[in-house]
Amino acid sequence: MKANFEKLNVEIFGSSHADKIGLRLGGVPVGTRLTLGDVQNMLLRRKGGAGIWSTARAEEDLPRFVEGLEKVGDEYVVTGDIVAEILNRDVRSADYDLTVPRPSHADYAAYCRDGSIAPGGGRFSGRMTAPLCIAGGIAKELLRSRGIRIGAYISSVNDVRLASYDGMQDETVFDKFIAHIDIEADAFPTLDGQCEAAAIAIKSAKARGDSVGGTIECVALGVKAGSMGDALFEGLESKLAYSIFAVPAVKGVEFGKGFAITTMCGSEANDAFEVRDGKVRTTTNNSGGINGGIANGMPLTLRVAIKPTPSIAIRQQSVDLRTMSPASLEIAGRHDACIVPRAVPCVESAVALALADEALKYGII
Questions:
Q1: Residue 345: is it exposed, middle or buried by C-beta count within 10 angstroms (0-12/13-18/19+)?
Q2: Residue 323: what are its φ and ψ, rounded to 5°?
Q3: 317: helix, coil or strand?
Q4: Which residue in 299, 279, 304, 280 sits closest to 288, CA to CA?
Q5: Which residue, 27, 169, 267, 358, is the most exposed by fewest CB within 10 angstroms?
Q6: What is the average per-residue pLDDT within 153-160?
Q7: What is the pLDDT of residues 226-243, one digit of tens each?
């Protein structure tokens, strides 16, 4: 599975229940020095086995770099395409019925394409976001070396609204939040640290054998005006959306005010200009830091819709593809009651890869 970026070559291989999954990342300039601290941070935040929301599947998620990096002191030097592998150790394929497709999974579509349903979702599984986080961690480190920092957080769970970038113009709030998650590897990050109501919603769904979704917001600081993006197909929103939809649970993405801007008049929606600290800024950020597909110097802000985990214990209607007859399904096994917390670093990774590719394209890196 490959990403069609312009400068970075991203290939994710393996499947949910294969012996291993992994990543080949090309395009990082040879000679670049990395600490890989962001990689570890991202994998820790994505990891299952902890929290009321999470699957009990316990994978170590310790990447083994087999090509492309040479250890020099406390750092690694890029020598070519970077290849990393992660072993799958806690696999239970017997939990899956391979003739009855799970509603809202890729099972039926994959059956029509491949002729079979792979255990655990195969290449469509959220398990494949672990290699994505390796790539994203490397991209985040590349961007930070150029003063660009990225952070994502949970802005809603089910109908529980949490702190959001909406109406927030104090960039120090984002700055402090990003610094926090870079150090703490917070498993349930919110912009203001409040998560009690969301936890109750998840507990309630889990008790019913059900699941809930939510939204994730992502902010990028330090992207200079005019430095990334262009018109039409070259637009920064286009590249970001393309990358974000690599995260399996994503069903929508909006920038700045997004769909809410349709309820505003132009006089409300327009971001007026001013000079602040010697720089041209906007008094609001309804556009999410992008105009005409090009970064305008304000924080890049976007919101992502994450669907409820489709694997639930409640009985659902399906069909048996072997007999072409009705079948009911109660999904056993280990599944997340809410995938939103573990999807946060995946969204960060997708954003980081898109911005790193733009930074390489325009000579920032």
A1: buried
A2: -110, -10
A3: strand
A4: 299
A5: 267
A6: 97
A7: 999 999 999 999 999 999
Integer Rg of the chain from CA:
21
Token representation of residue 165? 């970038």
CATH fold label, 2-361: Chorismate synthase, AroC fold (3.60.150)
Max mean pLDDT among 85-89, 186-190, 212-216, 275-279 falls in 212-216
- Determine the Cα–Cα distance for residues 121 and 97; give it in Å rounded to an integer: 11
Whole-model pTM above 0.90?
Answer: yes
Give the C-alpha separation, 12 to 83, whole Å.
10
39 within 8 A of 146, measured Cβ to Cβ: no
CB–CB of 139/352 below 8 Å? yes
Look at residue 155 and give its three-state secondary structure: strand
Phi, psi of 196 (to 5 degrees): -60, -45
CB atoms near residue 265 (< 10 Å): 7
Query: Where are the domains positioned within the chain?
Result: 2-361
